[in-house]
Design goal:
alpha/beta, Rossmann fold, 6-stranded mixed sheet, elongated, binds adenosine-5'-triphosphate, binds magnesium ion
Length: 435
């Protein structure tokens, strides 16, 4: 009888596993659409998109798509729950059949006189108890199995993280994040292809940056400027070629250590809905309490005047998301991002379109400073404004992921290539306005 009860549990084990698989495949299957639905929800509700959604009257279309995905999810969920219920019901029927079968067997034993009635009563109690325990055991195994399926996804994810970080284990021997500075950075035959692309975004980049130099990157949209700054900032590793810091292959250096050496303001810089002070100090957390340093950085970026005027000065909450938060203009946010880069005070300063939103005076002042900044720093500057890249020691012109021209402003104009063409196009706009 014990054998009968245990054997009766085996189908449950399989049915439980099936139920878990159904739930897991449902979660995996729904993830892309759920993320899309979550994104549409954000577009429909966030401030960042609200003005466009209203101005273009696109909410109906977005809402319709959102609701369609929601309906699809509910339908899919209904099917999944039905299947799980079916497995549960079959499970219940089998369990009941085993119990009934055992009782019938006991009844037969009593009838043929193999056991006494009192023995049978004890056996019935034992059967019920044992069947309950076995069901419990199978249920726990099922939950464990279900958890393991999702855990597997987690371990796969962690494995990806390890791949982007340092590939071998020698990193522990490196000294902790000291600001060691550098004399030169060399890029040799560097290429980079985004995982989602088949065509490379950077091809055969050869370049050296000396300490104290100002390098400007120019080129048309999509020519690879931002990608190059991200490689220099240690956000990506090159797909081909080598980047050396003072002769040391950066593939041998932990990315976090590399990033220590770099302060960067991205084209799509972040706006933190934290205090103004934190917005700047966040680039060097170890000196979070250095209020004087934060103020100096803000002054250099031209952010100090309007920050001091805020209700609580530098302690004012920025951004509109929380009660009491003050929103700023786009240019004012950009100046804060600049201040953040200045406050970090790293050997390499990378500025990707740092003045795109600044007024002409602001832009002029920033570029006047860049030269001063270069004392003790290496500055990599990306800009579409040719008036501002003129001052760089060297200008690199990118086209289709390659460096096609290199030199100072005069040399590049004399060359009469892509740089000269783009420069003339921009200059014409001003001349036309003059005449
Ligand atoms: N995250 C990404 N995934 C896939 N491809 C990308 C990604 N970022 C950029 N690219 C592609 O890589 C190429 C270079 O892009 P990059 O952002 O470096 O250009 P850019 O010179 O900075 O342009 P812009 O002047 O518009 O800022 C482009 O073809 C672009 O479409
Ligand atoms: Mg860019």
């Amino acid at each position: 009888m014990v054998a009968l009860i245990i054997l009766g549990g085996i189908p449950s084990l399989f049915l439980n596993r099936l139920g878990s698989r159904v739930l897991h495949t449902f979660a995996v299957r729904r993830t892309p659409d759920d993320r899309r639905r979550g994104y549409l929800y954000q577009v429909l509700t966030r401030k960042e998109e609200a003005h466009e959604v209203r101005a273009f009257d696109s909410s109906e279309h977005l809402r319709h798509e959102h609701d369609r995905l929601f309906d699809e999810r509910i339908a899919d969920l209904r099917g999944t729950v039905r299947r799980r219920m079916l497995y549960g019901t079959i499970n219940g029927v089998i369990a009941a059949a085993v119990t009934v079968g055992s009782v019938v067997l006991l009844f037969v034993f009593v009838r043929i006189g193999r056991i006494s009635l009192s023995d049978a009563a004890v056996a019935i109690a034992a059967v019920v108890l044992l069947a309950g325990r076995i069901r419990g055991l199978i249920g726990s195994t099922g939950s464990l199995y279900e958890g393991a399926l999702f855990l597997e996804d987690f371990t796969d994810f962690v494995a990806v993280e390890r791949y982007t970080s340092k590939p071998n284990a020698a990193s522990e021997s490196l000294e902790p994040t000291a600001r060691r500075g550098f004399e030169r950075i060399d890029l040799q035959g560097v290429g980079f292809t985004y995982p989602s692309r088949s065509e490379p975004s950077l091809i055969d980049i050869n370049l050296s940056l000396e300490h104290g130099e100002v390098i400007a990157l120019v080129g048309e949209n999509g020519s690879g400027k931002t990608t190059l700054t991200k490689l220099l900032a240690g956000l990506y590793r090159p797909s081909e070629g080598v980047i050396y810091w003072d002769g040391e292959d950066t593939a041998e250096i932990e990315l976090a250590h590399l990033r220590e050496q770099v302060a960067v303001i991205f084209q799509d810089y972040a706006r933190y809905f934290l205090s103004a002070h934190e917005n700047i100090a966040i680039s060097r957390m170890s000196d979070m309490s250095d209020r004087e340093g934060v103020r100096r950085a803000a002054q250099r970026a031209g952010a100090d005047p309007y920050l001091t005027e805020l209700p609580q000065g530098y302690d004012s909450l920025l951004g509109p998301s929380f009660a009491g938060g003050s929103d700023l203009s786009t240019g004012q946010w950009q100046r804060i991002a600049l201040a953040r880069a200045y406050f970090r005070d790293s050997p390499v300063l990378i500025l990707d379109e740092p003045t795109a939103a600044l007024d002409p005076r602001g832009e002029y002042e920033i570029f006047q400073q860049v030269r001063r900044l270069a004392q003790g720093h290496t500055v990599v500057l990306v800009s579409h404004r040719f008036s501002s890249v003129r001052a760089a020691d060297r200008i690199l012109v990118l086209d289709g992921g390659r460096i096609v021209e290199e030199g100072d402003h005069e040399a590049l104009i004399a060359r009469n290539g892509l740089y000269a063409e783009l420069f003339q196009l921009q200059a014409e706009g001003y001349r036309a306005a003059n005449s």
